[in-house]
Amino acid sequence: MNVSFQMSVLTLFPKKPRVSEVKLSRDYSFMYENFVLLTQHAAYLLLEKNDDVILALHFDSPYSKYCGPNDEAHGGHPLAKYGLGFYGLFEVENSPWIEEMMVANRIHPRHSDSLFAGYKHYVACFKDIKFESVCRNMKEVALSKNDLEALVAAELRNLES
What we know:
Elements: H1 3-12, E1 18-21, E2 35-38, E3 43-50, E4 53-59, E5 64-67, E6 88-93, H2 96-105, E7 120-125, E8 130-135, E9 138-144, H3 145-160
Antiparallel strand pairs: 1-6, 2-3, 3-4, 4-9, 5-8, 6-7, 7-8
């Protein structure tokens, strides 16, 4: 990497990320099974089903990534050297992804960096996949099968308009 490129990256992203584990109300098994439902307005990370209740994390934004690396290549994730663990939910302070979004948006004539204030970056690490979300709020939710069906039905209606 040449020195001028390194300097421009440091100028764009001056603060080092800090990653910390998020304590949830219960211990979820962040190993294999999960399911993501992504809409134009939100993301749901479905983690567990107990009887007729689906336990999930709700992110109030569609900004999401659902990709690798898996746990065997975990060290290749750019946040691994800043404390990103192998399994669980983590929050990233000084997120390079939020900075990247903000810098890209500066082309807009009415852009203001303040539009990105309050955004948070979460990473859920599983054995074979990682889910990342940038949002303002994340919360644990309990959904019924009817809740999920209503959500999908509403999104299907949006496709018709």
